[in-house]
């Protein structure tokens, strides 16, 4: 197995098997893992030549993270990458700077997920998680287990200090069922008619080129992404035709209201920009970027006025997943929950954190509908007595 070494004389990483005679003899060879984990090292920023940050893309960040994970392994057991490890990588010149991952991944949790790092946090960290981080945690747990996690799975991980407590999940996102609903796996058995309508509207938005039909309901149910046809009929007294009519009517109203709010917020962004309220280097290009800037400004303005132009510019231009962390650095008394509530109150939550992927799982391809329609048609012919008589 290759060992990850660091040559402190020339400032370079050396990969070699422990018995590899090709490893250059050097008095400065030290296991990289020891340098990353040691309480103190005799080096500071500037002792080694720094990497050029302009040449660092997403792939280089992933390669550096995986290299660190390899170096940190203990008897072949993966160890979690921590922020202090990134600081050491920067000191050793292996990465340009500690937070090099932020432009590409948004936050440290997303970066760790991309490189396959185990997750272990302290309880203070969990308390300050955003809703998205709870959803990411649930997604990673599901991927690791190969199934939707049960309550005991979350409790086990919490007891092992590898996840938040059930009580915290309950307080922050409404419990396991609510968390799985945000993940895209709803528990539809307790749904009322309004829940079916809200779900139908989301399906309509995810499939703007199609009309919601029972084939789509069945396909999404088979994915675990929505109610079964039988649940739908059982819980909706007026039947599918009436429910579909309500979905179309309410959906049309909701889409029109969202479009009007979007227009209003875009106009508000232009006012902020033209009045010089926004820092000079904050110049959004796309409509979504403009909405995000306006939304963040609204939240910052509501929660604190003690922000410098430099701090404001950083808040308005950082990755959306980094916004809460950056705002809490300026005002530590703000919790993630308070910031998210402020965004919801200002009706800019979706502008700051657009649901770009949350409803992607509700999209149904035309060929899926055609295939199911053909299957159901063939089954109907197979069991229809009149078809059998005609064939005979």
Tally of strands: 3
| Number of helical segments with 4 or more residues | 21
Largest sheet: 3 strands, antiparallel
Mean pLDDT: 86
* Lateral arrangement of strands in the main beta sheet: 2-1-3
Low-confidence stretches: none
Kindly provide the radius of gyration, computed on alpha-carbon positions and rounded to a whole number of angstroms: 26 Å
Our measurement of the CA-to-CA distance between the termini, rounded to an integer number of angstroms, reads 71 Å
Fraction of residues in helix? 55-70%
Write the layout of secondary structure elements.
Elements: E1 2-7, E2 12-17, E3 29-31, H1 32-37, H2 58-72, H3 83-91, H4 102-105, H5 108-115, H6 123-127, H7 131-145, H8 151-159, H9 166-173, H10 176-183, H11 193-206, H12 214-222, H13 229-235, H14 239-274, H15 287-303, H16 309-317, H17 323-330, H18 336-345, H19 349-352, H20 366-383, H21 385-391
Helix pairs in contact: 2-5, 7-10, 11-14, 14-15, 15-16, 16-17
């Amino acid at each position: 197995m290759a060992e990850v070494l660091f040559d402190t004389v020339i400032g370079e990483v050396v990969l070699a098997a422990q018995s590899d005679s090709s490893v250059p003899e050097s008095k400065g060879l030290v296991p990289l893992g020891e340098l990353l984990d040691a309480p103190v090292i005799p080096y500071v920023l500037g002792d080694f030549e720094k990497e050029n940050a302009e040449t660092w893309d997403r792939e280089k960040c992933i390669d550096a993270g995986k290299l660190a994970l390899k170096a940190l392994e203990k008897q072949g057991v993966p160890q979690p990458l921590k922020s202090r490890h990134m600081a050491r990588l920067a000191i050793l010149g292996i990465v340009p700077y500690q937070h090099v991952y932020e432009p590409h991944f948004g936050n440290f949790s997303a970066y760790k997920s991309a490189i396959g790092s185990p997750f272990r946090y302290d309880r203070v960290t969990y308390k300050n998680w955003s809703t998205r981080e709870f959803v990411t945690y649930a997604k990673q747990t599901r991927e690791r287990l190969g199934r939707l996690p049960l309550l005991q799975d979350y409790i086990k991980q919490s007891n092992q200090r590898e996840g938040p407590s059930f009580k915290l999940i309950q307080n922050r996102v409404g419990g396991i069922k609510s968390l799985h609903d945000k993940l895209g796996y709803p528990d539809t058995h307790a749904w009322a008619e309004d829940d079916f309508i809200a779900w139908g509207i989301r399906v309509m938005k995810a499939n703007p080129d199609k009309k919601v039909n029972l084939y789509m309901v069945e396909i999404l149910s088979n994915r675990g992404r929505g109610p079964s046809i039988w649940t739908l009929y059982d819980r909706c007294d007026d039947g599918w035709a009436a429910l579909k009519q309500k979905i179309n009517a309410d959906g049309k109203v909701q889409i029109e209201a969202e479009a009007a709010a979007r227009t209003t917020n875009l106009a508000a962004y232009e006012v902020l920009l033209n009045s010089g309220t926004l820092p000079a280097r904050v110049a959004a290009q796309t409509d979504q970027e403009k909405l995000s800037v306006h939304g963040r400004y609204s939240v910052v303005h509501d929660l604190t006025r003690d922000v410098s132009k430099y701090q404001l510019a950083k808040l308005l231009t950082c990755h959306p997943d980094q916004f809460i962390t950056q705002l809490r650095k300026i005002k530590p008394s703000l919790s993630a929950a308070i910031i998210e509530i402020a965004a919801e109150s200002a009706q800019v939550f979706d502008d700051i954190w657009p649901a770009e992927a949350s409803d992607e799982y509700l999209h149904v391809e035309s060929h899926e509908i055609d295939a199911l329609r053909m299957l159901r048609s063939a089954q109907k012919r197979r069991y229809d007595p009149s078809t059998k008589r005609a064939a005979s």
